[in-house]
Amino acid sequence: MQHALAIRIVFLTVLVLAAGVGATSYLGSHGKAQDTAALAHVRGAVHAAESWYEDPYGGHGSYRTLDPAALAHEAPNVSPKVHVTVLAGGRAFCLDDEEASGHSAYYLGGDVADVRNVNGTPLAVTLVHSTVDDAAAVCANAS
What we know:
Elements (H helix, E strand, L loop, with lengths): L1 H53 L13 H7 L8 E5 L4 E9 L2 E8 L15 E3 L6 H7 L2
Antiparallel strand pairs: 1-2, 2-3, 3-4
Helix pairs in contact: 1-2
């Protein structure tokens, strides 16, 4: 009887450990997928924003009227989750996408010489792993 109880305890211990490892692995891969999606969405929107700037029927040399609808006009496959912040009187812009808390990305583009209060390197898609600040907050705080 004690032998059967010991086998059950060992079996349950192995089962709980396997479930814990599986859950940890799933959550880790889910977070990586959210990071990848945020980066891909922002990268795709960067090309649309640059096209909008050059488009004589779009921005015509300015980002002043850049918004999500303008991004979709230039590239219909741009994610609707991408937000646009126009900076420096239409000379610069910030794009951001948040897939989940702690999984967001942003890009600062255009004439960024006069843009202040940006956490990160301009002219690069930057991944934000923070539950306190997200990419939208970075764009909103830029001026």
